[in-house]
Amino acid sequence: MPLGYRERPSRIAGAVVWERDIAGDAVAPVLPDGCMDLLWMNGRLTVAGPDTRAYHPTVGPLTRIAGIRFAPGAAPALLGVPADELRDGRPDLAELWTPALSRRAAALFESAPSPVAGLEAIAAWRAAETDPLDPMVPRIVTELRSGTSTIATLAADLEIGPRRLHRLSLAAFGYGPKTLTRILRMQRALALARAGTPLAETAFRTGYSDQSHLSREIRDFAGMPLTELLTH
Fold it and tell me: Which end of the chain is more exposed for a tag (fewer CB within 10 A), N or C?
């Protein structure tokens, strides 16, 4: 079960750095959230690609994990890999980068005073050497997270058309805008439910037709009932 989780805002805009100590007998599933993480675990640098379903970590008796979680859509530009190529994956960073880039990342990580500082150093280095994030990407997240824009309306507002919106979403988030909308809505609902909001009210406030609809969506993504998930 979790022994400790700590996080703080990163010096990388929109990102969060975190550490977690885990005992391997009962590990809560990691649910889709529209984000990607650069991780350090058991001496390895890996990338957590965009999930479409719950991920169940495999850990030893005691495992310490550190990560930097990027804002939705931000990681692909830093990694140089479209998000849909990493969907539901956990590849080593060295599998994605050239030997020269991998050596530079390893040197930055090893010279840092802590794992989270090392991950931030890698992210800062890549941010300085890549183009700024397409401003359409955070706008897509903001509009879909609000739950007030349809995909057709968003495409029209962005003046890019539904097909280009879909392609952009695949590259930035790993899945199309419809799936991203479902994931962001699920995360809003979980935040309310974990804060003590009754489930029927949570469903209403987040745009589900009723509590049963909410429960079906959670089970679809998490692979377990909502009530069981809330105990983790």
Answer: N
Token pair for residue 24?
């391997």
CA atoms of 172 and 133, how far apart (whole Å): 10
**Where along the chain do the CATH 1.10.10.60 domains lie?**
136-229
| pLDDT, tens digit, 9 for 90 and up, residues 151-197 | 999 999 999 999 999 999 999 999 999 999 999 999 999 999 999 99
Task: Answer whether 61's CB lies under 8 Å from 41's CB.
Answer: no
Angle at 77 between CA 13 and CA 12, to 5 degrees: 15
pTM assigned to the model? 0.90
Domain boundaries 136-229, corresponding CATH code: 1.10.10.60
Reduce the DSSP state of residue 168 to 3 states and report it: helix
Residues 6+ apart with CB under 8 A from 194: 230
Q: Cα 216 from chain centroid?
A: 21
* 8 A C-beta contact, residue 47 and residue 91: yes
Query: Considering the domain 2-129 in this protein, what is its CATH number?
Result: 2.60.120
Q: Where are the beta strands (DSSP E) in the chain?
A: 2-9, 16-22, 36-41, 44-48, 63-70
Residue range(s) occupied by CATH 2.60.120 in the chain: 2-129
Is the separation of the CB atoms in 87 and 27 below 8 Å?
no
Q: For the CA atoms of 115, 91, 51, 175, what is the dihedral angle to 10 degrees?
A: 120
Distance CA 3, CA 84 (A): 33
Picking from 69, 66, 73, 72, the residue whose alpha carbon sits closest to that of residue 109 is 66
DSSP 83: G
